[in-house]
Amino acid sequence: MTYISSYTEDERKILQHFFTNTESDIYFLKNFPDFEVAALFVASYSRNKKNLRDMFLDTIINLDIIEPNNKLIKKQVKELKQQEASSDIEAKIKELTNKLYPESATELRQTHPYLVTRSFAKWAQKITNIETGEDSKELMDMLGPKAQGLFAIWADKYGHDSLKDMAHGLGFACENVSNIFSVILEDHRLGDYQEKSTRYLEFTEDRVFMPKEFVGTIWEDKLNENTHIVMQAYRDVLENIINYLKENREKPDDIKDSAWDVAIKAEAFDNARYILPTRIRTNVGQISNARTLAEQLSEMLVSQIAEIRERAQEIKKEAEKVFPTLLVNVYANKHRECAKEDMRQLGLSLEDRLGNARYDKNSAVLIDYTPDIQDKIIAGMLYEAVPAAHSWQNCHSLIKSMTLEEKLVIIETFFENRVHKHDRIDVLTGKVETRTYKHAPMHALDGGKLKFEIVMDYGAFRDIHRHRRASQRRQVLTTALGYEIPRMVKQIGGETKDKYMEAMIHSIRLYNELQDSKEFHPEVLQYIPNFAFRISEIVEMDVWDAFYAISLRTTPQGHFAYRKLFQQMYLEIERVLPLIASYIEPDMNEYELGRLKQEQRYFEKAEKRGLDESQLIKPG
What we know:
The strands form three sheets. This protein has a four-stranded antiparallel beta sheet with strand order 1-2-4-3, with helices on both faces. The chain starts with 8 loop residues before the first helix and ends in a 12-residue tail after the last helix. The protein is globular and about 85 Å long. Helix 1 (9-18) crosses helix 6 and helix 15 packs across helix 16 (392-401). It is of the alpha+beta class. Residues 153-168 have low confidence and may be disordered. The longest helix has 30 residues, at 52-81. The protein is built from 23 helices and ten strands.
């Protein structure tokens, strides 16, 4: 998809040096000598409504105009406030404060457009004069420390691991794509992705994608009607939940107003997101190597869905500007196209012979696992510790002959001493602080496989889908498995629940009409359900992966839907690994406003660093 560019000539000059185009929703990053800088912008997707190029320009405004001016003034104001109060001091503080620029780059463009124009003209001229690459390096030198500082703030709030994932390889952006597209792009387990989050940002009706298959047909108006109904419900339910929580929950005295407001909104978004249709637009960034991208494109080029095929062609076109030879001969995987359709037809022919045993709610059931899994894992723990003269089979035979008490000695030895204190350097302040860290267990745990069938709402699926170490095989999304009703909608009831149910019922009726028409492939009909509708998939992981995923996804700040699923997975694992499961240590409690403590810690940490709230990463 292309659009009319609103960039000035100087803005285009800057952007064209660092991105493969300024007109399309699909573009690659280039000339970023510092991977941390490139990774920062891709990682910023999940909490920002803007596109990558606009975020890049905003960052230049912040670093070249806002921060140099405001940092000096704030320092002077701080020094004045430390002096004895007087009318002269107050007047000087007021005079200085009036000289502060807006902290928002968007607002500065409106209040001081000449400063922005002058800054971009300067950098555009430098890029025009590039001969040795030094001018590009100068801009990167300015962005580099900022990247490190923002990484430090980001890591405190959201964790380090997702940032580390982004700091390598080939980066590109896919913007204004549907959630159906982003899932298929992210199916490849070797890519690293960041996507616009439904948990932190509000969505509007104009952000709903119209699939090409419906454009110009009798169904286009019906899809538009559905969009209007569900997005109106989304707005109303979101507003009702925010108001309800503000009126019925009392803020503890020790909680900052900012942390309280963020936690209230997060709870509201977590509940309202169930109403969003899967065709809601999102932005997704990927960083990977060329081989991973080639494999993705090969499969996407034969998709039954027009959006997938057309976007794959756009990605290939832009990628060739960065890797002109490596991706030029990417082929369409016709085997996948034929085999997938042949298997679908075979499945339909066997449907009458299948039993019908389905779950009417979100559930995680352990359907298969490595035979004798517990003893085999314990044997794996022992195997790496014994002299080379002894085989794994020797270890397994010994474990089989051991008493319960003897096995427990091996297990306890394997898991002990995981908690240690480590020094950590704060990149922003340079100070060293000591943190207590619980290390992941050693990888002997990957010697046993666990296979779950998980039935979950599409929103929870989007979260679980991120665990790319696990093998995931899903069925096509339909409305057949019903839908979830989120906890706040149940609790508030009344008009809020009525609007929610109206949206779900309208989507079911539209889906059934489209299905009965037999005009569309089942994969295309995945655009119709809301995030509330359930999807089923098989998730296979080893025990080490289960330790990691369950520990991570049961923390209080997690979404309540996937927290319950991972808690169920833990209970299932307990049945087959009774001696080992307790070391996972999941949080089995339920929380409302689960993000509150994390947000409070975030704001407190920022205060210790001497940062005001204008310097913090906030959704939007």
